Amino acid sequence: MAVYYDTVVVGGGIQGSSTSYYVARCGIEDVLLLEQFERNHSRGSSHGHTRITRMAYKKPFYVKMMTDAFQQWSDLERRAGVTLFKNTGYLVFGKDTEEYIISNLESLRLNGIPHQTFSGLEANQRYPRQLKIPSTHKCIYEEMGGILYASRSLLAFQQEFVKLGGTILDNHQVTEIIPGDRVTVVTNRGSFKANNVVIAAGPWAPALCSSIGVDLPFKVKRVESIYWKVDNADAYSSDIFPTTFGIAHGDTFYSIPVDEYPNMVKISSAGGIWTDANNRDTESGPVTVPAVADFISSTFRGVACKPSIIDYCMYTVTGLNSVQLWGSL
Q1: Is there a domain that residue 110 lies in?
Q2: Which of 56, 104, 246, 307 has its CA 20 to 30 A from that of 110?
């Protein structure tokens, strides 16, 4: 016999965990969060120690969303009693003709977000032990940006969700969703009925939605999180060096200072290979290392050009490469 819940959320990553938490915060009782793997696994998009968060986005509506997001992260920190965000600042740099630079700057100005602009030469003077970017580049420094602790944030959402009476079942793979007056969610370990079902399965969402006749134009990309040794860990400490986002050779690169692995920075590209959620590790090896190594050699001081650690993560990419809303399915 199927067990009844008011709301079932499929997928225990950051989207599903936060959704479950906020549904429970609204006073909805009997909320179930289903995760196909163990909690805080490393198969999807939400694992790992660090991510960059910031106000600077080229689309103004994202900036408005981030104002609310920062407040909600602060609220979750207070409730969970754990640090989720470190304010390091966020430095963007590239040619002043780059559309990304122009649109980011315009978006920050339109929304009144505190920021500074200066040349690549001044950036190198501010960070003489770390940077050697082209002197004519344009830089945007956003004071509010920094590091979001990813796995810690995921666990904080789940912890607070359970405090509100929510239920989490991991190692429950959803195999079928059957629409009806009450939706039936079938897993490898039993069935559940619910008034509402939220599919927050990330790279597994297209297959699940397709099974109920909804074809979403999503693609899955495997990206690489690459860690590189530094000569001077103090110079690249997250206490003094910001997160960065650079544009070069038609590609984009981000960096996170030493915070996760001792004496290593995370410097990676948004590039990767298109893949299938269930075959992430059967594809070819890392593909972005040469481009990232070239970027490092032309941008940073005292960073090895041979990677020490490579992790994989999956992006679920919409047709617009942005958030898309379809409403109820």
Answers
A1: yes
A2: 246
